[in-house]
Amino acid sequence: MFHKVLLTYTILILLLHKALIVYNFSFIILIGLFGIIVFSILQSTLQGKSVISYNKNDIYLGLYLLIISISLFRSYMNGLFEISPIFTIMGVYFITYFYFLYVRTNKELNYKELIFSGLNLYLLINLILYSIGYESPHRIILSDTFGENATLKIFGISHERILFPLAPNIQSYGLICGSLLLYNLIIYRKNKNIYNIFFVLIATISLILTDSRGQILFLIIILFIYIFFNNFFLKRQFFFIITYIFSVFYIVVIIYSIYSFFDIELLVRENSVTIFSGRELIWIEFLTHYRPTVFDALFGYGNDGHVISGISKNYSYLFTNWLNPESASVHNNSFQLILDIGFIGLGLLYFIIYRTIQTYREHYFFNKNPLNLAAIYILNYLLISGTTEGVLNPENSFTILILIILIVFTSSK
Predict the structure, then answer these.
(1) 65 pLDDT more than 90
(2) Is the CB of residue 343 less than 8 Å from the CB of residue 297?
């Protein structure tokens, strides 16, 4: 029972740290969490139990975490990051990494279900807090709204976008909502448990209220594939991963096709220049001005590479309402990772994810466990969502946490 409570608590704290960093609580909570985890590991060691086991993919993941840690320090050296948040983010990554390597050695725990239960609880807590009027600390500091909800506008409902009380930002929270909707739907189709339908509803409501249109669009695409082309999709994962890497090029074609055949006025948010809020203009600026040295091409410029390289100056005019317009990312996962950690980092990450998906696929074909199928679709959802957002850049700890958990737990069938 102790390990079950600790595991759920760990998930909640790891998810909450980004929201609580505004109040300077994150580092204190992280230290407390680290102490509990060390105590748990020492307890197992004294009892003569196996503490940590690892495989090749775990080593590759550890190397990747080291690469993004170096990226964060390079950002600090360029004056873009303070040292305290860097240690907090690195602490979250490596505590998550080593703790879950330890947790998976406990054969008595159904840890995958426990982890997703913690994630579901996180969504529910946020919705309850929002319902009783609690506001995000980020919202209080900014003293501003996050714009009109374009999704609800389609149905004639006027409402602003919602940043939930304990969410780090709208895009990351939208990803969590979409991922949990996928998870609960896939599990429900196998187990027919009303618990999962309840959280499908919670995730759907939360996703619509955040109005993360990219996350909604890509969720619809992934659900369509899951319902109608599941076997075809599972057998061709290499093709789809390559497609995600170069997704920006065909999404531009889709965008301009939409312009040609549909009335997009309802889909364009107030004060936005295009349906994708000028993303295609950002990508053109990146392709025009990306001129790295050999070293920067291989290893990137460091976290916030779009700022360090000076590329963001060329599209900052799109973000004049921001306090720092040049801080806006390039809004594409591949482009952002190339700038932050270079082609070596980008290649290593996609190699790890491909190996992870392959392992989950083998497990699913062997035992038809819906948890393995859910993991495959969540990983694909994260990758395809990177078409319009830098969802896996080094400081995006919210989605990196989910990635670490899914990669570490591939060893279990």
Answers:
(1) yes
(2) yes
The model's pLDDT over 32-50, given as tens digits with 9 standing for 90+, comes to: 556 666 666 666 555 555 5
Is residue 137 within 8 Å of 19, Cβ to Cβ?
A: yes
Are residues 95 and 13 in contact, defined by beta-carbon separation less than 8 angstroms?
Answer: no
- Backbone conformation region of residue 310, classed left if phi is above 0, alpha if psi is from -120 to 50, else beta: left
CA dihedral for 8, 9, 10, 14, sign (positive or negative): positive
**CA-wise closest residue to 69 among 83, 57, 79:** 83
Smallest CA-to-CA distance from 190 within 358, 367, 363 is with 367
The torsion of the CA quartet 1, 117, 17, 81, rounded to 10 degrees, works out to 130
Q: What is the pLDDT of residues 274-288, one digit of tens each?
A: 555 677 788 888 888
Evaluate if residue 349 carries a pLDDT over 90. yes
Q: Are 113 and 119 in contact (CB under 8 A)?
A: no
- pTM, two decimals, is 0.85
Assess whether pLDDT exceeds 90 at residue 203.
yes
Biggest alpha carbon distance in the chain?
68
Full DSSP string of 237-279: HHHHHHHHHTHHHHHHHHHHHHHHHS--GGGSPTT-SSTTTTH
Average pLDDT, the chain: 79
Three-state DSSP at 61 gives: helix
> Two tokens at 413?
């069938």
Phi, psi of 315, rounded to the nearest 5 degrees: -125, 10
pLDDT of residue 267: 45
Which distant-in-sequence residues (6+ apart) come within 8 Å of 42 by Cβ?
none
Angstrom distance (rounded) from CA 363 to CA 370: 10
293-340 pLDDT, tens per residue?
999 999 999 988 999 999 999 988 888 777 788 888 888 889 999 999
Estimate the crossing angle of helix 26-46 against helix 83-103, to 10 degrees.
30
CA distance 312 to 26: 29
Residues 6+ apart with CB under 8 A from 253: none
